[in-house]
Structures are given as structure tokens and as C-alpha cells.
Amino acid sequence: MKPTLSIVIPCYNEAESLPVVLPELIRFVNERDYRLVITNDGSRDGSLIMLQEHFANEPRCKVVNHKVNRGYGGAIKSGIQAAETDYVITIDADGQHYLDDVDKLFKLVVEKDADMIVGSRKGQAEASAFRGLGKSIIRGIARFLMPMDIYDINSGMKIYSTELARKYIVLCPDTMAYSDIIALVFISQRHRVLEEPIRIKPRVAGDSTINVKTAYETIMEIINVVILFNPMRIFLTIAVCCVVFAVAWDIHIFRRGGGISTGSGMLVVSGFIFFMLGLVTEQLSQMRKMMVKK
Question: How far is CA 231 from CA 154, 191, 228, in A?
Fold first, then answer.
């Protein structure tokens, strides 16, 4: 049986871009027999009315409505839950993604029998130097905590198995950090995650809502996911650092016959405590993994 695909789009106050984006999207899904699910995430600018008008006579298109804004990740989760196809692909409502890349990723995920393919923007210019720096920091932290080959984990265009997505979205936040976390969850669970270059064009209208708060939330969510699936990666690192600092602190005192100082002793004890915490959380992590796999 031929695999099926739903395009899932989160929408929040996109009334300016929707008149430009929707006609092309509707024509695209109708020509290919795809499905389109757009989640209106509590928009206050008439986006819902616009969506309902455009989708009134479109059997392949569906609108999911949130009365209250839940966030980028929350909107995608609702879209995934409403999808009735084998695969879902997420894109943004601001018109930045080329629809030709949807076809390319869908073909590739089927041919490669992948569980997820990330649309990579590597090498393309960032909207600003500040955003580029922020993304680089997030990628660096993610790679240190969870070794992986994927570069652009926070790309908004990802295609993945609907079944697996529904299984793991409970572990993902409702915030902008969703894009990073869903990729990390798939990777940590040893699913086949690939990366394929895509193109990006300027927004049709509006401004990005990504800011310093978004970066902070994303880093904290990454740490949470690593603690959930590989806690020793964090606790063992901290424990080793404590012991190394203790040795560096006390080595010259010990050589003079001064014994072990109070400060270095406390660092060694702290290292032991962090190591034991790591062992305990590792056991809890194994139990949580078994629950997720069921």
C-alpha cells in the first residue's frame, strides 16, 4: 500500500502570510493527494476565520483550533494527533519553506526506510548574527550531552513516522524547544534519523518570535531529555570535574606535607555524591525507557 503524508503547520497570528501561503499549499496537497493539518494556536488576528474560509470545501485539509495559545510545540502535537497518515512533515506558516522539499523528504524517508529526516539549513545565511550564535551554542551543548551526526536539530522542517511521533510527543515541550527535543528523543531511542539539505526563503510577513528566552528554554529542555535518557552523561561529567578540581587544588599543598585541605575534601565528596546520583537516575531512566517502549 502506498505510504501517505500529512503536512502539519502550527499557526499563530499569521493573518498577513496566510493569503499568500494557503492557495499554493491547497493546490500542492490536492495535486499529490497529501493531507494538510493546520493548528490555529489561539490566534487573535483573524487567522482562524481565514483558515475556515479557505478550507470550507477542501476535504484534504483540516483545521485544529486551540482556544488558548499553547505554544509552537503544543500546536504541532495537536496537528500530529489529528493526522491520519503514515508520515507527517512539519513546516512553518510563514512561507519560508519550499514545497518541493516536502516531496524530496517524503521520497527519501520511504526509500531509506528512515524514522525521521531533518531538513538541514546548514550553510545558509541566518536571519541575524545573534540568532546564528544562539543556534551554534544550542547545537554545541546538545552535541556535548548527546553525541550525534545531525547538525540542524532545531530545523522546523522534519518528516517522521506518525506512529513514533505520537509515541514520543508526550516527552516533548509545548514551547519552541519542541523542534530540538523531538529530534533528540528519536536519536536517543536509536531510531534511524537522517539529514537532508533544504532551502529557505525570507518570511512572507511578520517577525520571528525566537529570542533569548527561547534559547534558555531550549537548553533546559535538552538537559532534561539527556537526564531522562542518559543521566550519567551529565552526572559523571560533573563528578569527574569535581575530582579533577580537587586534585588540582590540593596537589601543591599535599607535596608540602600539608595533607588534604578542606576544600579539596569537599570536592571529592561532592564528586562521589554526583556519581551516586547518576547511578540512581540511571536506574530511573531505564524504567522510564521501558515505559516509553511499551
Answer: 22, 19, 6
Dmax (CA) for the chain in angstroms is 86
Place of cell 522534519: 158
Q: Tell which residue, 48, 89, 45, has the closest CA to residue 66.
A: 48
CA distance 71 to 75: 6
Decide if pLDDT at 285 tops 80.
no
Q: pLDDT digit string (tens) for 132-176?
A: 666 666 666 666 666 678 888 888 899 999 999 999 998 888 988
b vs e for 137-159, b when ≥16 Cβ sit within 10 Å of the residue's Cβ?
ebbeebeebbebebebbbbbbbb
- What is the 8-class DSSP label of residue 158? E
Q: What is the pLDDT of residue 107?
A: 96
- φ, ψ of residue 160 to 5 degrees: the values are -155, 165
**15 by DSSP, 3-state: which?**
coil
Give the CB-side neighbour count of residue 161, counting CA atoms within 13 A: 14
CATH architecture group of domain 5-229: Alpha-Beta Complex (3.90)
User: Model confidence at 24, in pLDDT bands (50, 70, 90)?
Assistant: very high
Question: Running DSSP on this structure, what letter comes out for residue 205?
Answer: S
**pLDDT grade, residue 202 (50/70/90)?**
confident
Looking at residues 57-67, what average pLDDT do you find? Answer: 92
Distance CA 228, CA 226 (A): 5
And the C-alpha cell for 40?
490555529
Average pLDDT in the chain: 84
pLDDT tens column, 234-249: 788 889 998 898 888 7
Q: Strand 5-11 relative to strand 35-41: parallel, antiparallel, unpaired?
A: parallel
Sign of CA dihedral 172, 176, 177, 183: positive
Dihedral Cα 140, 128, 117, 9, nearest 10 deg:
130
Of 46, 42, 35, 8, which Cα lies nearest the Cα of 178? 8
